[in-house]
Amino acid sequence: MSFFVANTGSLTSELKLTDGAFGLGRLPERLQPNSVTDLVCGFCSTGCGLTAHLQDGQAVNLTPTAEYPVNIGMACPKGWEALTPLTAPDRATKPLLRNQDGLLEEANWDIAIQTFCNRFKQIQATHGNSSVAFISTGQIVTEEMALLGALAKFGMGMVHGDGNTRQCMATSVAAYKQSFGFDAPPFTYQDFEESDVIVLVGSNLCIAHPIMWQRILRNPHSPRIIVIDPRTTETALAATQHLAILPKSDLTFLYGIANILIQNGWINQPYIDAHTEGFEEFKTHIKEFDWQAVAAATGLRISELIHCAEAIAHGKRVSFWWTMGVNQSHEGTRVAQAIINLALMTGNIGRPGTGANSITGQCNAMGSRLFSNTTNLFGGRDFANVQHRQAIAERLNIPVSVIPDENSLAYDQIVAGIESGQIKGLWFIGTNPSHSWIDQSALNDLLKKLDFLVVQDMFYTTETAQQADLILPAAAWGEKEGTFVNSERRIGVCRKIARAPGEALADFAIFRLIAHYWGCAELLSEWSSPEAVFQILKRLSAGQPCDITGIRDYRMIAENGGIQWPCLDNEDLASNQRRLFTDGKFFHPNQKARFCFEAPRFPEETIDSEYPFTLLTGRGTSAQWHTQTRTSKSAVLRQLYPEEIYVEISHADANRLKVKTGDWIGVRSRRGSLQARVVIAGTVQEMQIFIPMHYRETNLLTKSSFDPYSRQPSYKYCAVALFKP
Ligand SMILES: Nc1nc2c(c(=O)[nH]1)N[C@H]1C(S)=C(S)[C@@H](COP(=O)(O)OP(=O)(O)OC[C@H]3O[C@@H](n4cnc5c(=O)[nH]c(N)nc54)[C@H](O)[C@@H]3O)O[C@H]1N2
Ligand SMILES: Nc1nc2c(c(=O)[nH]1)N[C@H]1C(S)=C(S)[C@@H](COP(=O)(O)OP(=O)(O)OC[C@H]3O[C@@H](n4cnc5c(=O)[nH]c(N)nc54)[C@H](O)[C@@H]3O)O[C@H]1N2
Ligand code: SF4
Ligand SMILES: [Mo]
């Protein structure tokens, strides 16, 4: 530690790294001892406000913020327990470098970053600039994402950088862009309380977004809640109508519902005429989706279809919401657009309680979508567009030549690039793909082929970190500053309420160090602190649909209980519940929304006699977060979920297989196999099983298969067999 401080003392002043950005030492002065400070939760995209209670400047407790407009005094177990992972014993506290014996060894920052730069520069010199790539996350603050995007792509010459948000939100992005002309989720959470019909497609709100579910429970209009999910989830159990659709038959189902609406004249023709294009073609396309065919393909009864269509037709304020049951599909983009089409044709958009609403996953997936400079050029622009590159170069006062003129490869293409030899160096930031990526063994084999693998994480024990050549220890949520953007486009502030352990640095500070050692610090001299970057992002957003030039600073955000984009000068923030498209104008040049559609396709792998079961995966409990690096550290949360991997099996299948709850059973796919505890449950249908994603082994089974437009992995469908171990 003393060595480190001595060594970086000069760097700190040279780089103007503030204490807050560094994750080290003193806490910012405004945090008085024994006071409280408000910040946004760092787990899910709901973006709840939490109040940290401080003793001697350190947070000792968290409570939900009563007046925050998102959660209004509520929090889920993860929010209450968010401090616990910060003090876990496996926090990465020093850089770790793999030595010649193949062991990870402590190194100081100087050596770590020198090695980082030397190795990546060497690779670029031999194989070209685009042979080094990065994969980032939806779980760091926007300012860090933006700095990384600028550093890697403008400073280090990288072309390829994607995010774990590809696993999660890419489908919604592709769908919105084509349908609305911009990646623009239109809703505000107030809509949960104002709808009279709420349609949830592939979304288990009770588990994955418990506070959004609480918002539905506050709805005074006794809304009809329709859940479309193959499983009888906690959310489905609480619904008015549950449509236990056959997995991956959503597109047929939604076209069938559209057909019923059209045939009965239950559409809003004036809205369609005034604000959309492509409806006549859509109408022709869906003619063949008659009730019998749709019922057969979806496993639903005709009466269920009609019942659902009637509810949508007779609702005055119908809102449609979707999450991973839609996005993680081989044809997710078209499914999302089929939902959008229903909202458009019934005029359920731009009014309170309506909308075609994609719910995001990670705390800052929305920040990543617009400001990470990965698949979009800053502010939702296009790398391949010369005017867009010019606009960014001017606003940043950098040469346009440093901006790549091609779009990044998508995550799966970067992985494929390792196989083909195109990608030789890789840098993971805030994601744990050795656990979470689809068809995990294939990825883990490929990671061994890399010349240099860097993992930047708050823990050194993650499955991915353990494979790295270099681990960079990162400060976590609560140990640094910046902003997140939640599902309803609300920007919220994160505060530093704890010291990072050992020599761990905020991702922001790590990026600044790298810029310095790489030799591109001058290009990024203005990117000196999170607040400074926020000011840059305002400039980059100007004139785009996500314009935030009207937000003065973090203080203004905090004082308003978060601020939704867009926010131009003199925006009226009084209601602080703003939705898009209230004027019926969309972001395409002709201001119309488009009906996008396509014939349904079968998934690449379907069940057969050898692999007769369908494997569904997803969230298990509200106490588990993804690969469990954080939530498994809390003794409280651990009480709330099964420690061992389990598989949900229907009563009928369990009887046939002669297994009971608690037995071990083997599950095999063409990619790999695992053993899990049987849980006989009414949640799954016959010949379908469910395994939560939180256990390391789950993605041994899943099959690499992607939506062609979004390149999002289809995690929720593959063929498996069960066997007695
Ligand atoms: N507790 C907790 N909360 C979380 C997370 C977490 O790890 N833990 N992660 C966050 C993140 S990043 C995300 S992206 C969200 C995800 O939030 P959700 O998408 O709500 O969660 P999942 O369980 O992945 O998937 C939702 C449902 O899709 C259903 N499904 C599977 N196949 C199909 C299908 O073909 N059609 C339909 N209609 N449904 C299908 C599954 O049965 C499942 O119930 O949750 C966020 N919130
Ligand atoms: N089978 C199956 N697989 C899935 C899914 C599914 O439904 N089924 N869902 C997919 C989805 S939607 C998602 S979003 C992904 C999630 O997959 P991952 O992104 O791999 O999951 P996390 O566990 O959230 O990983 C985040 C990592 O960042 C670290 N970290 C936390 N905070 C910080 C920070 O401030 N800085 C840095 N540098 N590191 C930090 C954590 O310790 C952790 O290692 O999983 C996907 N995988
Ligand atoms: S619902 Fe999401 S944002 Fe709210 S406390 Fe839970 S994890 Fe945090
Ligand atoms: Mo996600």
Give the SSE map:
Layout: H1 2-14, H2 19-22, E1 36-40, E2 49-55, E3 58-64, H3 77-80, E4 96-98, E5 104-106, H4 109-127, E6 132-136, H5 142-155, E7 161-163, H6 170-180, H7 190-194, E8 197-201, H8 205-208, H9 210-217, E9 224-228, H10 234-237, E10 241-243, H11 250-263, H12 269-275, E11 276-277, H13 279-285, H14 291-298, H15 302-314, E12 318-322, H16 324-327, H17 332-345, E13 355-358, H18 365-371, H19 386-396, H20 411-420, E14 425-429, H21 433-436, H22 440-447, E15 452-457, E16 470-473, E17 482-485, E18 490-494, H23 507-518, H24 530-541, H25 554-559, E19 563-564, E20 593-594, E21 613-618, H26 635-638, E22 646-649, H27 651-657, E23 664-668, E24 673-680, E25 688-692, E26 718-723
Parallel strand pairs: 6-7, 6-14, 8-9, 8-12, 9-10, 11-20, 12-13, 14-15, 15-16, 21-25, 22-24
Antiparallel strand pairs: 1-2, 2-3, 4-5, 4-16, 17-18, 18-19, 21-26, 23-24, 23-26
Helix pairs in contact: 4-23, 5-23, 5-24, 6-17, 11-14, 11-15, 11-17
The structure holds ligand MGD (2 copies), iron/sulfur cluster and molybdenum atom (MO).
The site of one ligand MGD has 31 residues, from helix 8, helix 16 and strand 21.
